[in-house]
Amino acid sequence: MMQKSALNVSKIREDFPILRRKINGNKALIYLDNAATTQKPHSVINAISDYYMNYNSNIHRAVHQLAEEATVAYEMTREKIAKFINARSPNEIIFTRNATEAINLVSYSWARRNIGKGDVIVITEIEHHSNIVPWQILGDEKAAKLEYLRVDDRGYLSFQDYERYLQSNKVKLVSVSQMSNVLGTIIPIEQMIKMAHDKGIQVLIDGAQSVPHMPVNVQKMDCDFMAFSAHKMLGPTGVGVLYVKEEILEKMSPFIGGGDMIKEVHKDRTVYNDLPYKFEAGTPNIADVIGFGAAIDYLQAIGMNAVREHEIEMTKYAIKSLERVKGVTIYGPSNENHRGAVISFNIGDIHPHDLATLMNDQGIAIRSGHHCAQVLMDRLDLSATSRASFYIYNTKQEIDMFIDALERARKVFRI
Ligand code: C6P
Asked: What is the whole-number distance in angstroms between the Cα of residue 17 and the centre of ligand 1?
């Protein structure tokens, strides 16, 4: 079957060596766990090994040629990311280990100064644990309150609740995920940010699931902070990004103290380095930041509008196909324009771990469990779901094979 797609998927697939892997002896790998982490193209793998083979060196310190080359490559990635999300300046881009650390950086360096007793942090019921636990820790420490915006069964937010919290004049921070990693729901964050800013409240966007899958423009959405991870967008593990508006970053306290984040250290005082280095203490993950630069190049070359279009097409096809499977319940918005390419579902009373194990027998990688979103699971009265999530290299043929495998599983469990 010819595939209609905004992307040349068969050409893209050639760039990903792992897609030639066999699972369980002879089963072609069908990788549908992209919300957890994506696969890496040759260009990313090569950029990392090129650094280690040809110019491995520490950065920002020495004057020798290797150090100069490594520094330029590292800083080039910062510039590429700034362009990718349309930040005003590369100084607004801080490298972290992952999205989780980026959110924690905001909680330690900004929120501990700006949130106090009786203040309120507003998050939502769809949040990943990474956007819940840091605020619980802060709330316990500062006697601040954490409020959850309720969502309906499809993951749509209650704007009435939101309006009510904002009116209370106690809210100091709104921190929301742009796209749910369980339901796929895309949150209308531009509207949320505008409403918060009208009250002088800062907004953090957890972009871990959105930045890899759709065009994201931080100046247009006007968020104050945004966190995301390289490994969910073709890049290596161990690198995350925190975007912060420069005027806010200038007033933030350091996160971790040590080398590279300082200009001068004396017995009794330290002068911190310029932005963004003040927030990057110690030797960073140089090789993987450079690898991330190659991932950004790859995504820029195919275009984020085309990525989003391809995923809408895949999601629509997958939902239609899944709906025909007897006993299936699909969670999240039914309109593919309101959601990303992540589909959580259950079939009858088959436990998601059992289903994922049967899928694996057939070479198909899906995720099962609570997806680090237990508050949402409680809200939906579920202990777990199965989850299939797509990216640029997935095809409708793979979805057909996934559906065939589900039908076989259904028979095994007599559903
Ligand atoms: N979600 C998933 O399978 P890290 O682990 O820091 O790279 O990303 C954390 C994170 C934050 N926010 C959202 C919305 C996320 O989906 C994730 C990671 C993975 O759904 C691993 S649990």
From this structure: 24
Q: Which domain holds residue 326?
A: 9-31+303-412
Is the residue at 2 inside a domain?
no
**395 Cβ closer than 6 Å to some ligand 1 atom:** no
8 Å CB contact between 365 and 359: yes
Q: Are residues 226 and 333 in the same domain?
A: no
- The alpha helices in 199-280, defined as continuous H runs, are 218-221, 246-249
Check pocket membership of 175 for ligand 1, CB cut-off 6 A.
no
Q: How many domains does the chain have?
A: 2
Kindly give the number of the ligand 1 atom that is closest to the alpha carbon of 179. Answer: 14
Distance CA 256, CA 284 (A): 12
Contact in structure between 50 and 288 (CB atoms under 8 Å): no
pLDDT in tens, 277-305: 999 999 999 999 999 999 999 999 999 99
pLDDT at 1 over 70: no
Ligand 1 centre to CA of 136 (Å) is 18
184 and 114 within one domain: yes
Residue 205 lies in a domain: yes
Domain of 357, CATH number, reads: 3.90.1150.10
Q: Tell me which residues are annotated as active site.
A: 372
Convert the pLDDT of each residue in 17-68 to its tens digit: 999 999 999 999 999 999 999 999 999 999 999 999 999 999 998 999 999 9
314, 293: one domain: no
- The pLDDT tens digits for 390-407 are 999 999 999 999 999 999
99 close to ligand 1 (CB < 6 Angstrom): yes
Could you give the CA distance from residue 106 to residue 253 in angstroms, rounded to a whole number?
Answer: 10
> Does residue 130 line the site of ligand 1, with CB under 6 A?
yes
CA 287 to CA 398: how far, in whole Å? 33
